[in-house]
Each structure stands twice: as structure tokens, then as C-alpha cells.
């Protein structure tokens, strides 16, 4: 036992450079093999020993895949979770809050309107800081506005933010100071018009990548993001508005949470193997937490009518739930980029399916069992 | 035939539609030189890594780690911000056609060999990649990887600053004085080529030696390659040459030979740098069927539009149903 430990320790010291030092190293069960041990007929070792949760067992043996020493095919996104997943949360919170704020304005709910407008301006300011902070060259932030490219969701988003930011800030300033009320209301309406796009474009941003868990979910992801945005904005409304004003915030959050949670479930179901990262590890834990938090938050919000304290608590729960959801989706993407299985296996299946499709009409008579 | 990748699925189309999309013309060049590219014929790669060295030297790329990976002779590990050519080494116990290099020397009499003197008779000399061997022997695949310079380049599509651009040669190049390090191109690349330098913050990748080819020189890696495994030239010519090479290898019973990236109908519209491989692409670390992510962008925007409209709808619903609630709470407020 102790001898074992010493041996391992000395090994570490002797080989100053080991596989662990290689950037992004590879899992220990995918060691390189030479000589007799290698070979095409030997399937790549399984990526992990995970068994699927629940009792479901695959009917067919798991498809094996091949890779280059288990190394990822894709490059992992270089974005930091705090900045970018944080931005997704803050941007969503801002965009949906602007909608809530304008609605409150139009229906005469001053505390909800002020909280939502100030929240939107604050969130989008913080979001902008996070975005600039994440750049490799923050000083070159304005290069984002050098071109306008419809093919780049980040370019579209930069222009959206350039329009939305001042509107949200103007609406908040007018709401707080009471000055220029008509202009302030107009700015608020403008922000509410752009808000849903600010909340939703980030879904196009992450799904417009080669990251399998993100890209393959491109149809559902906007509903997750916009839903999560509404959950957060509703939460902020519950936190800031008086009990007389917060009714719509509860309904808004409930609708958002319903959309978000069902879209995540749909992703997990539809994506099959590629959806695994949404159920495993840190991403899985965060998404499960998000589900519980959002459901609890909505439930408490409906029960809390008239109770300022409980409203605020449920609002806070909803905000945390929305953030957990964004971070969960972010980490699921990283996990799917890190494992070559999620890149190779679906593509190989696609090739095989196309080959079968192609060969069907010509080979029909040649097949013994067709 | 069954192991062929989709790249060789339609060899007839390879010459018929060889031109495919002209990326330079699509990017607005009215008059431009022919599309230039690489044909990397891995069947003659000897794993010397001269391409890696030449690339580093010519492009003045900083050192990015002196590592021991345990992956055969590959201590470079993969392409990255400071590695624009990477030679992969794959050891397999499997014949390359009817041949293999031997690793078992049990039947060799060393003393008898010594009696021959310093030279080995040619017929007893070691294998060449296309020389027949025994079926239990080892084959060693080597392949020099590089940026693919896609016809439909996701990195270029998603770049928000216009730093990545299409050259008149149809290649894709980063303008380092524009890049602000947003990192969007990194996960967009379906091949995992482009990456960010941590200390520098910007992204870097192969330029297909934009500074050399404009002056009529070939890229540094192609010039340094001693076996012409890396061939540089007009893409049309390279594709014809590659198709001919595959035919010859198939005639020599190297049935595994297949092209990767030469099909203008694949998910990225064919690549400017394509390969002749002796195994499935994923064995070399390539994605078997890459698709440019922006192909699905219209669907993404549609989905965003519907979701955004849904948000407005949810707000309308919230304030309509909330009105009743407000009435109630308003009453409550008044009665207090």
C-alpha cells in the first residue's frame, strides 16, 4: 500500500512531463496503445462507466466509435462560464424585464414598472461588462460594430445591444427621476420591442456552433432561453414590486418556467446520445436544480399573494433557477465538445444511414433478406 | 467499398462538379486567381514533421509546449493557435493492402545479418507504405493535418468583426489587427482547428501562407515536405490528381484509400485542403461528416422569432389575467 503510493509519487516526480500536462489531456481509459494492443478491430473504450439513470436499457448494444487517442475533435469554447453563461442570464433578465416593465407601465403598476426598468438597465450594464471582460482583447470591443453580419449571431447581438442598451437605460432613468415621462415611456416601449430578441438571440449564438449538444438543440434552445428569461424577469418583478402590482410577474414567470422546462425535457428526449451531457455531471446537476427551483418558485409565487416576504423569496428562487439553467446548458455544451463520442458517433450514423438509403433502390434484388 | 467515407461516395461527381461553389467569387472578387489549396496524400507521409517545423519557422509561431503524450511519435497532439500543421501517428495491427511492416524479429538471425555487412539487400529492406507484407504486421499511419479552408467556412461566417476573411485565392485568413478575441470562431469550426492564444487573446490558424502564395511561392509546409505528401496548387488540378492517385492505390489493392474533403457536395461544400486517407477519418481525429453550422442558421432565427413572439404573448397574457388579480388585490388594498 505504502510502497504503491511511493511508486506513484516518484513516477510523478521523475516524469516532469506527463500526459496530464498535455493541453486538454485525455481520459485515463483512452490511453494510447501500441503494437499488439492496437488495432482496428478493437473498439474504442467506452467514454465513461456511466449507466443511464432510471431503468431504461438500450435495446441495441451501444454503438462504438473511433477517435484519435480519445482526443476531442472540436475545440472547447474559450468563453468563461462566469462571463458568458452569466451574460446569457443577465441579457435574458434584462430583455424580458423590459417587456414586463412596459406592460406594467401601460397597465398602471408603478412599482412593477420601476423595478423591471431599473432591473433591465442594471442587468444589461452588467452584461455588457461581462461581455467586454470575456474578450481576448477588451480594448478592441468596438470592432464588434465594424461590420454588420446576419450570418453571425454575435454581430446581430452586438447591434441589438447597441440599440437596446440606451433605450433600457433611458427608460430606467426616466422612471427613477420622473423626468421626461413621455420620452421615458417611448424608450421603455422601444426596449420592450427589442427585449425579446435580446433574450432570444443568445440561443442562436450558442447553437450556431459545432458543439454537438448545443447545435443539435437549435430548434428548442430559443424557447429554453426566452422561457428562462421570463422566469428571471418574473422573479425580479416578484422581488421588487409591491404585492398589489406583482400579479402579472407571477403569471409571466409561470409561463416562462413552463416553456423553459418543457423545452429542456424535449431536448433531452429528442437528442438521444448527444443529449447525454444535459443529464450528467455538473450540467445535469445544475439543470435538475433549475427544474426544482423554478417549479418551487412558481408554486410559492402563486401561494404568496399578498405576502411581501414570500413573494420576494419566490422571486429570488426563480432568479437562481434561471441562472442555474443557463449555467447548466453552458456546461453541457463544454462536456459535449470535450468528448469525441458526441462528434463522431452521430456523424458516423448519418453516413451509414445515407449509405443505406443510397444503396436501397439498386441493391434491392441482391439482398437476401429484403 | 463499404468502408468508404462519403467523400469518395460520388467519384464521378468529383470531376464533373469539381468547381463546386467558387468561394472567392461569392465573396465579391470579380477577377481572381484560381482557388488554391492543399492535397495531403497521407499514403506517402513519412512522419518527418518537416511541415510542422517549416510552418513554425516561416510564420514565427511561438513555442506551445514541449510535451510527451505517449501517442506514438505524436508529441504535438493537435492543431491549435500555435500549431498550424500537425502530424498524426496511428499504429495499427492491420495490413495496409497485402503488406505490413514487421515488429516481431523472432525469426531473424542477427549474426547472419551482420555477416552481410552494413547494407541490407533491397529485397530484404523494410517496407514502403505500398509494399505487400504479412497480415499480422503493424501498419503505421501518418498524416499531416492543417486548416481545411472550407468552401462554407463557419469560422468566417460567425466572426463578428470581419477579422476572418476570404482571400482572392479562396482561402480563409485571420486579420490579426482586427481580431478582438471574442472566441466565437473556436467552437464554430467543425474540425477544431482555430484556437485562441491565451497570452495574446487573439485567434490564430493556418493562412495557407497568404504572404507566400501571393508572391508565387508555395506554402512553407508544402515546400519542406520531402515526399510530396503535401501538394499545393490550384484546387481543380489537385482534385484530379487525387482522384487518379486513389485509382492507382485501389489498383495496387490498397482498398482503404479514400479522399476526405474532396467532395464539393459535402457538409462544408468541399475543403480547400483535402486528404487521401488510409482509414476512416475519425481514426485521424477528423469528423467523419462535418457540416457548416450556419447551414441551420435560418432555422435558428425562425425559432428565435417564434420564441420572442411567444414572450410578448406571455406578457400580454400575464397582464390580461393579472388584471383580475390586480382588481382583487386593489380592492384588498383599498379596504385596508
Number of DSSP-assigned strands of chain B: 10
Which strand-content bin applies to the residues of chain B?
Answer: 5-15%
Please mark out the parts of chain A with pLDDT under 50 across 5 or more consecutive residues, or reply none. Answer: 1-62
Q: Looking across the biggest beta sheet of chain B, what order are the strands in?
A: 8-1-10-9
Average pLDDT number of chain A: 86
Low-confidence stretches of chain B: 1-18, 324-336
Q: What sort of overall outline of chain B do the alpha carbons produce when their principal axes are compared?
A: elongated
As a percent range, the share of strand residues of chain A is under 5%
* Helical content class of chain A: 55-70%
Which features characterize this protein?
heterodimer, A: 370 residues, mainly alpha, 11 helices, 66% helix, globular, disordered N terminus, B: 336 residues, alpha+beta, 4-stranded mixed beta sheet, 10 helices, elongated, disordered C terminus
Structure explained in plain terms:
The complex is a heterodimer of chains A (370) and B (336). Chain A has 370 residues and is mostly helical. Chain A has eleven helices and no strands. Chain A has helices at 2-14, 81-106, 110-134, 153-177, 181-207, 212-215, 221-240, 247-271, 281-303, 308-338, 340-363. In chain A, helix 2 (81-106) runs antiparallel to helix 5, helix 7 packs antiparallel against helix 10 and helix 9 (281-303) packs antiparallel against helix 10 (308-338). Residues 1-62 of chain A have low confidence and may be disordered. Chain B has 336 residues and is of the alpha+beta class. Helix content of chain B is 30%, strand content 14%. Chain B contains ten helices and ten strands. Chain B has a four-stranded mixed sheet. In chain B, strands 2-3 form a two-stranded antiparallel ribbon. The model of chain B is unreliable at 1-18 and 324-336 (pLDDT under 50). The chains are: A mainly alpha (370), B alpha+beta (336). At the A-B interface, helix 2, helix 4, helix 5, helix 7 and helix 8 of A face strand 2, helix 5, helix 6, strand 6 and helix 10 of B.
Amino acid at each position: 500500500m505504502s510502497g504503491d503510493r511511493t511508486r506513484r509519487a516518484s513516477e510523478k516526480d521523475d516524469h516532469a512531463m506527463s500526459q496530464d500536462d498535455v493541453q486538454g489531456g485525455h481520459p485515463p481509459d483512452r490511453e494510447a496503445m501500441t503494437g499488439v494492443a492496437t488495432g482496428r478491430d478493437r473498439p474504442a473504450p467506452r467514454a465513461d462507466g456511466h449507466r443511464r439513470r432510471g431503468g431504461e436499457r438500450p435495446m441495441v448494444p451501444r454503438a462504438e466509435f473511433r477517435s484519435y487517442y480519445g482526443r476531442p475533435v472540436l475545440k472547447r469554447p474559450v468563453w468563461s462560464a462566469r462571463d458568458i453563461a452569466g451574460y446569457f442570464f443577465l441579457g435574458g433578465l434584462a430583455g424580458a424585464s423590459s417587456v414586463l416593465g412596459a406592460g406594467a407601465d401601460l397597465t398602471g403598476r408603478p412599482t412593477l414598472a420601476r423595478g423591471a426598468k431599473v432591473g433591465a438597465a442594471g442587468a444589461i450594464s452588467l452584461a455588457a461588462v461581462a461581455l467586454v471582460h470575456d474578450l481576448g482583447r477588451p480594448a478592441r470591443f468596438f470592432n464588434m460594430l465594424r461590420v454588420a453580419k446576419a450570418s453571425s449571431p454575435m454581430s446581430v447581438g452586438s447591434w441589438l445591444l447597441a440599440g437596446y442598451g440606451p433605450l433600457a437605460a433611458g427608460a430606467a432613468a426616466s422612471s427613477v427621476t420622473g423626468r421626461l415621462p413621455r420620452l421615458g415611456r417611448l424608450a421603455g416601449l422601444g426596449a420592450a420591442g427589442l427585449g425579446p430578441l435580446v433574450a432570444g438571440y443568445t440561443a442562436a449564438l450558442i447553437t450556431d456552433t459545432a458543439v454537438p449538444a448545443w447545435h443539435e438543440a437549435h430548434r428548442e434552445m430559443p424557447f429554453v432561453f426566452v422561457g428562462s428569461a421570463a422566469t428571471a424577469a418574473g422573479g425580479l418583478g416578484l422581488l421588487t414590486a409591491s404585492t398589489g402590482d406583482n400579479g402579472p410577474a407571477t403569471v409571466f414567470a409561470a409561463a416562462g418556467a413552463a416553456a423553459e422546462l418543457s423545452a429542456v425535457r424535449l431536448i433531452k428526449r429528442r437528442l438521444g446520445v448527444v443529449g447525454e451531457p444535459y443529464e450528467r455531471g455538473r450540467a445535469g446537476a445544475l439543470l435538475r436544480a433549475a427544474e426544482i427551483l423554478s417549479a418551487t418558485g412558481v408554486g410559492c409565487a402563486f401561494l404568496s399573494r399578498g405576502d411581501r416576504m414570500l413573494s420576494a423569496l419566490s422571486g429570488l428562487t426563480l432568479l437562481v433557477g434561471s441562472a442555474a439553467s443557463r449555467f447548466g446548458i453552458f456546461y453541457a455544451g463544454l462536456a459535449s465538445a470535450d468528448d469525441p463520442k458526441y462528434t463522431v458517433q452521430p456523424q458516423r450514423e448519418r453516413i451509414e444511414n445515407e449509405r443505406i438509403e443510397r444503396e436501397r433502390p439498386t441493391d434491392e434484388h441482391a439482398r437476401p433478406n429484403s | 467499398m463499404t468502408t468508404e467515407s462519403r467523400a469518395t461516395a460520388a467519384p464521378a461527381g468529383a470531376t464533373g462538379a469539381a468547381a463546386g461553389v467558387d468561394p472567392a467569387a461569392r465573396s465579391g472578387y470579380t477577377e481572381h486567381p484560381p482557388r488554391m489549396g492543399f492535397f495531403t496524400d497521407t499514403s506517402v507521409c513519412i512522419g518527418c514533421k518537416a511541415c510542422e517545423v517549416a510552418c513554425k519557422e516561416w510564420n514565427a509561431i511561438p513555442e506551445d509546449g514541449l510535451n510527451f503524450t505517449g501517442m506514438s511519435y505524436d508529441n504535438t497532439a493537435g492543431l491549435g493557435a500555435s500549431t498550424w500543421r500537425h502530424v498524426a501517428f496511428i499504429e495499427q495491427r492491420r495490413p495496409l493492402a497485402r503488406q505490413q511492416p514487421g515488429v516481431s524479429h523472432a525469426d531473424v538471425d542477427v549474426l547472419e545479418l551482420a555477416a552481410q555487412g552494413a547494407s541490407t539487400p533491397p529485397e530484404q529492406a523494410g517496407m514502403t507504405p505500398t509494399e505487400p507484407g504479412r497480415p499480422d504486421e503493424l501498419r503505421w499511419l501518418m498524416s499531416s493535418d492543417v486548416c481545411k479552408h472550407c468552401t462554407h467556412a463557419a469560422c468566417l461566417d460567425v466572426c463578428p468583426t470581419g477579422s476572418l476573411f476570404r482571400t482572392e485565392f479562396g482561402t480563409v485568413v485571420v486579420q490579426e489587427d482586427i481580431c478582438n478575441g471574442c472566441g466565437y470562431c473556436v467552437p464554430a469550426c467543425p474540425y477544431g482547428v482555430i484556437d485562441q492564444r491565451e497570452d495574446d487573446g487573439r485567434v490564430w490558424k493556418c493562412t495557407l501562407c497568404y504572404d507566400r502564395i501571393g508572391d508565387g511561392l508555395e506554402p512553407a509546409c508544402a515546400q519542406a515536405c520531402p515526399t510530396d505528401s503535401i501538394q499545393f496548387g490550384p484546387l481543380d488540378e489537385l482534385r484530379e490528381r487525387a482522384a487518379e492517385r486513389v485509382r492507382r492505390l485501389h489498383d495496387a489493392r490498397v482498398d482503404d484509400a479514400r479522399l476526405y474533403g474532396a467532395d464539393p457536395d459535402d457538409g462544408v461544400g468541399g475543403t480547400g485542403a483535402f486528404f487521401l486517407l488510409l482509414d476512416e477519418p475519425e481514426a485521424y481525429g477528423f469528423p467523419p461528416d462535418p457540416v457548416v453550422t450556419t447551414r441551420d442558421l435560418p432555422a435558428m432565427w425562425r425559432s428565435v422569432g417564434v420564441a420572442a413572439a411567444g414572450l410578448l404573448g406571455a406578457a400580454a397574457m400575464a397582464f390580461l389575467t393579472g388584471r383580475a388579480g390586480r382588481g382583487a388585490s386593489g380592492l384588498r388594498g383599498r379596504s385596508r
